[in-house]
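Thread amino acids onto this structure.
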């Protein structure tokens, strides 16, 4: 792989049709790159050009060059002109040949892009397909969702989703694996093997969390026609005093899954202003609470309920565009 300092400065300018035509001539002079697919070189070319644009915007006087990246630092390769890449249980890759593959689900639609990715010593094939959306049958149920840390989510109908805390459960084993890496001699084969074990266990925790998000988001989308959530600043919350717990819960990934699944199923997905959802009663009165106060008691209407449940009801009301006291007679029996 060519380092950034070995490539010509012209490759760092924003790419154009003229540059794309001259790019194969530049590659022909590099003996180490002749065996790779042209699309791979083009992806690297675009990556360098994009990096230059960002650098020029941030520091117009001295943009500098991208950091040198060795061949082992490139873990993916994208194929855009693939044709019939999948033949039975084998994947046909340009310049590589046929590779055996295990499909975890059948492909639906036409394949647009294939990315071969290396992750913790394992290889994965990522297909981007184009297919028609599959809307579900009309559903009149509505739900408001209040995400949290003690409970992963509380729904406006009173049901709760427990927080599995995958990272917290795995910390004991992660500690032992990290200590094993620290004891190994740098640049040794034993250290590389220890790092590989640590990477795979981190991926295992990530996959557990992702599987949990997929299952719970699918249940919510299948059972409700309108889904209301808070438009949270998760990036800000993930850098505060509860950063580890917020990242372990993975709210951002869960809400993004809800959004795209709701769109594909023809559901309504609404994000509401999160300000005051935990400090407001469904009757419209303000009920101030600290983070340690887990019970909601309204002196205006007499409502006494779990604060997360009431917050989920307020979120649903805001998504409907109704004033907080519009249907208090209907809502109070469901939270008392």
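Threaded sequence (336 positions):
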């Amino acid at each position: 792989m060519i380092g950034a300092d070995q490539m010509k400065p012209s490759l760092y300018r924003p790419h154009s049709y003229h540059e794309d035509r001259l790019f194969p001539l530049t590659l022909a002079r590099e003996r180490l790159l002749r065996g790779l697919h042209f699309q791979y070189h083009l992806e690297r070319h675009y990556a360098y050009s994009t990096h230059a644009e960002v650098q020029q915007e941030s520091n117009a006087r001295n943009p500098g060059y991208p950091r040198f990246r060795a061949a082992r630092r490139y873990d993916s390769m994208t194929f855009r002109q693939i044709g019939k890449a999948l033949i039975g249980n084998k994947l046909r890759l340009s310049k590589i040949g046929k590779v055996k593959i295990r499909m975890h689900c059948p492909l639906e639609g036409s394949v647009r892009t294939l990315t071969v990715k290396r992750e913790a010593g394992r290889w994965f094939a990522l297909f981007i397909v184009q297919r028609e959306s599959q809307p579900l049958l009309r559903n009149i149920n509505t739900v408001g969702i209040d995400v949290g840390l003690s409970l992963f989510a509380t729904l406006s109908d009173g049901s709760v989703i427990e927080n599995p805390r995958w990272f917290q459960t795995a910390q004991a084993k992660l500690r032992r694996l990290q200590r094993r890496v620290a004891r190994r001699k740098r640049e040794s084969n034993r250290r590389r093997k220890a790092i590989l074990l640590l990477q795979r266990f981190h991926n295992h925790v990530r996959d557990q969390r992702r599987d949990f998000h997929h299952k719970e988001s699918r249940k919510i989308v299948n059972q409700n026609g309108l889904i209301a959530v808070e438009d949270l600043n998760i990036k800000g919350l993930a850098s505060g005093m509860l950063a580890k717990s917020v990242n372990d819960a993975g709210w951002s990934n869960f809400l993004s899954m809800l959004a795209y699944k709701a769109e594909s199923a023809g559901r309504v997905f609404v994000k509401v202003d999160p300000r005051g959802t935990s400090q407001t009663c469904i009757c419209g009165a303000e009920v101030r609470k600290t983070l340690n106060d887990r019970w909601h008691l309204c002196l205006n209407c007499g409502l006494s309920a779990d604060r997360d449940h009431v917050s989920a009801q307020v979120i649903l009301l805001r998504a409907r565009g109704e004033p907080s006291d519009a249907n208090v007679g209907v809502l109070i029996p469901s939270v008392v």
